Amino acid sequence: DLSSNKINCYLAAVDTDGIGVEAAVAGGQLTAAKIKDTFQKANFEFKDKTSHSTIILPGLAARLQGDVEDVTGLRVVIGPPDSGRIPGWMEKNWPPKPK
């Protein structure tokens, strides 16, 4: 969905043991610490790679927003519930408005 819509971004895949986002959040396979660890293992530095230092979480992981902000120190916004809705979401919500 990102490539076919020519959306230029970085995508991080967090290992949830094959469990979907909603169930992984509920079961503890997707946590703020795992998200932070994914970026650290990839040596991904937001300040070097982006001008906005913002993470977009899937809508089904919305309850992790505050925790991800706390552990990463980054801005976290909630995206759509599924990737098919990313283009429309981007048109309405990107770039992020200043805090």
What is the terminal-to-terminal distance? 28 Å
**Major β-sheet, in short?**
2 strands, parallel
Classified by CATH, the class is: Alpha Beta
Number of domains: 1
Overall shape: globular
Task: Return residue spans where pLDDT drops below 50 for at least 5 consecutive residues.
Answer: none
What percentage of the residues does DSSP assign to strands (E)? 5-15%
Can you walk me through this structure?
Helix 2 (32-41) crosses helix 4. The termini are far apart. The protein is mainly alpha-helical and 99 residues long. Strands 1-2 form a two-stranded parallel sheet. The protein has a single domain (21-93), classed as Rossmann fold. The longest helix has 10 residues, at 32-41. Strand 1 (54-57), helix 4 (65-72) and strand 2 form a beta-alpha-beta unit. Helices cover 37% and strands 8% of the residues. It contains 5 helices and 2 strands, in the order αααβαβα.
Q: What is the element layout, followed by pairings?
A:
Elements: H1 21-27, H2 32-41, H3 46-49, E1 54-57, H4 65-72, E2 75-78, H5 86-93
Parallel strand pairs: 1-2
Helix pairs in contact: 2-4
What key attributes describe this structure?
single chain, 99 residues, mainly alpha, Rossmann fold, two-stranded parallel ribbon, 2 strands
Quick structural summary:
With 99 residues, this protein is mainly α. The protein is 37% helix and 8% strand.
